[in-house]
Amino acid sequence: MAEIVVSVNGVDRTLRCEPQTTLAEALRGALELTGTKIACNRGACSACTVWLDGEPVCACMLLLADVGERSVTTIEGLADGNNLQPIQRAFIDYDAIQCGFCTPGLVMSCAALLKDTPHPTTEQIRTAIGGHLCRCGTYPHVIEATLAAAGGVAE
Amino acid sequence: MINDGALQTERLAVGILSTGLTEIDRPVPAGEPPPLAPNADLKVIGRRTPRIDALAKVTGAARFTVDVKLPGMLHARILRSPVPHARIRAIDVSAAGRYPGVRAIEVIAASGDPSTAAIRYAGEPIVAIAATDASIAEAALGLIHVDYETLPFVVDFEQAREATAPLVYGDGEERRALQDEWILPYLPRNGNVQQAVSAGNRGDVESGLQQADVIVSGDFRTNVQTHCCLEPHGIVADWRPDGLTVYASTQFTAGVRATLAQEFDLPLHRVRVIVSAMGGGFGSKSSLRDYGRIAVRLSRRANAPVRLVLDRKEEQLDSGNRPGTWQRLRIGARQDGSLAAISLTSYGTAGVGTGAGVGNIAQALYTCPNFESAQYDVFVNAGPGSAMRGPGNTPGAFALEQTIDELAERLQLDPLKLRDGIDPSTVRREERRIGAERAGWNRRHAPGADAGPIKRGLGVAQSLWSANVQTNAACEVRLYRDGSVEILSSVQDIGTGIGTILAQVVAEELGLRPAQITVRIGDTEFPPGGPSYGSRTTASITPPARTAAYRVREMLFQQLAGKLGVPASTLFAHDGVISVRGETKPDISFCEAAAALRTDRISAVCSRQDDYMGFRHAAGPDAAMAHQDLGGVQFAEVAVDTETGIVRVERVVAVQDCGRPMNPLLIESQVQGGVLMGLSYALFEERVMDRHTGLMVNPNLEQYKVAGSRETPAIDVVVLENYQGQSATDAYGIAEPSNIATAPAIANAVYNAIGVRMRELPMTPARVLAALGKVPTLEHAS
């Protein structure tokens, strides 16, 4: 077991882990941040999406030991206290949610998109969430919500 | 609530809103709340209300079964068969038992016992281990030695029908030790083919066909579809001397409790099943299932809580699937379009299980005096099927609705006109009218009429589903002296938003906002809610919720009336206050009124009563079918690239009904989900079995293709308000009906685009090019 320090949601966390421990396992396990979900555990569904220095990545495809100095943001760290991000508010208002298991990952990807592209087109949103699998089929409402959060008009 | 059978006559507004409501007088059991007005006259029900657990779901706070962590909890993994058919000669778990951290071992497929030594599919559970860590359990599985006597196998259900095919079940072999009863073979078998199931046969098909002016017939194949729930099947079992508590990702908490009580010989009150957030089921989480039994056994043996969560490969191999089918359909009709006869033969496979029929859509959707069917289950060496969103009727609709489309063309009738003549449902008639207008049906051209390589087409198909009701469904409404209100039921929210709908129902009755209602569900400590399958949750639990809220309100009014010195009948609740009708007394806030209660809390528990006009038939002791007229008509618009074979669905218009729509925002989500699952079934999804190894080739989410955001068409959802005056809420389900018509609507649109009929799912580029004669025909995958 090695001791590793990782910055998660702005706080340095120290934990002991096996070399093969993934970021997703560490978040859900020792760090008790279970908002990050594991659904396929091999980068095929994007349910485990978190930010690494602000960029969306699959936490199941990254070893904890490889995070290094980069800062990790999870769904729990997205809102500023009780102040939701506009994309979170829009997910609620447009019902871009059904069972909710893939939702944290989708929120992280849509929030990252809006951070870099404040006024995305529908095509840009489709591409940004192209790697996400939502079996309930929330995509139409996710696209509407993202357009609305960007201040655009939902189609 | 028990009523004494007394009836009172009520005036109810019934009918489809867009075609006009009529008022009728109908006897209603005494004690029922007064008839609920149409949605336009309501404040909360029928409004687009965001779901109450949305905040938890967008912040990561929602707690799913996979997130449950108990003190001292062990982690279990299952050793599964790497081969499709074998007899276990010996199992040695001694080295695994000595591995540090291992706390319990359950040998499931014991050698020596013929009923458990037989392995019939790759992925079948053999041994389970609980250890202090999942990686320890996994490592210990590697120390188990299993001596397999491998046997000949068959995974292709057409090969399985051949007389020389290896037998999945030998003579006298009937069942494994575990496994849910309903999937086991139960009829005599001829080789791997179980005796046919026939239902609804009537008239004389042969003479009907002789009288027909036109006969169309076709053979259709549908794929095995896996559920792909994002939250894996999972359970945390906590066996203690004073009882068993189970956290389960389930569609039916009360059903899992009943099964556990029976199988582990515990009284019902000593078993508690809990689910908070639930990450999708689609039919595959309807019952306890083997992994659930295994976790409970391990917990009992280890004397500690045990967490057992399947990984994605296990999900694909052994968590259920929609059976694959082959169907031969013959329909005879007269020149005026009236049907003379329908004949259906199907062979389907649910792997080692049963339930691969194609439903009753061919039998019941259209008026036809002569009908016969024979539906055969064929066993193969693959994981057992299970219910999946509109089981039976979804593959059945693919064959039926394409054949009807073909019939219309042969008769030179518009497919909608043909259906106007043979579909007795007034609901679907209105849905066809609305959908045709929305979809621009009048611009539909002749098949293959577009010039150029990309050809567009428009198609339509219909669905048929039962309005199911669980009568073993109850809930409690509590009012506290501080004005707080709770609704409690074991009913679970699997993503449909039933918790939100319950809050709306109670809020409407008490004149409050949904946010003022605390919803406590998904726990068998509360009154038993029904299952969330068969599109029955809303139909089952909202009427007793309204009745309970009504009774609590009446109790409050009784007590308040005494204090105010007015008759209780003059009080009414609205907008957070209680007013006195016909007097100038000031309004009393709801909280003030509650403060007048004699006790800290009052409550009412109510159960689902029969529909006012009765049910069409019972479905076992706990459920019934109200009627079979849940409709749904879908129009699909596609663009087919005849050079690449790629089908793009550009738009779907889905016109659906569910009685009274309770929350159009959530219904829209449900219907979009049903359409997308149907689109994915139509174009992409396919379990591929290697007939040489007997293994699934794509047990993952990257090679098992599911539609994503880029494949999502514009989906136009229209929901009728269809008031039937049958219960306290008059609401029925929508989840399954919205899935059934999509694949045939797309197939009919593809035909309209290219003039060639696609009779096999999924409609991949290779199959489209083969149908166009541009590449050789594929071998059939199983």
Account of the 3D structure:
The complex is a heterodimer of chains A (155) and B (782). Chain A is α+β, with helices and mostly antiparallel strands. Chain A is built from five helices and five strands. Chain A has helices at 23-28, 86-93, 103-116, 122-128, 139-149, and strands at 2-8, 11-17, 49-52, 55-58, 71-73. Chain A has two domains: 2-77, Beta-grasp domain (Ubiquitin-like (UB roll)), CATH 3.10.20.30; 86-149, DNA polymerase, domain 1. Chain A is globular, with a radius of gyration of 15 Å. In chain A, helix 2 (86-93) crosses helix 5 (139-149). Helix content of chain A is 30%, strand content 16%. Chain A has a five-stranded mixed sheet with strand order 2-1-5-3-4, with helices on one face. Chain A starts with a strand and ends in a 6-residue tail after the last helix. In chain A, strand 1 (2-8) and strand 2 form a beta hairpin. In chain B, helix 17 packs across helix 19 (742-754). In chain B, strand 13 (234-240) and strand 14 form a beta hairpin. Chain B is of the alpha+beta class. Chain B has four domains: 65-151 and 233-309, Aldehyde oxidase/xanthine dehydrogenase, a/b hammerhead (Aldehyde Oxidoreductase, domain 3); 155-232 and 310-424, 2-Layer Sandwich (Aldehyde Oxidoreductase, domain 4); 426-467 and 625-782, Aldehyde oxidase/xanthine dehydrogenase, molybdopterin binding domain (Aldehyde Oxidoreductase, domain 4, 2-Layer Sandwich); 472-609, Aldehyde Oxidoreductase, domain 4 (2-Layer Sandwich). Chain B starts with 6 loop residues before the first strand and ends in an 11-residue tail after the last helix. The interface between A and B is large, with 55 and 56 residues.
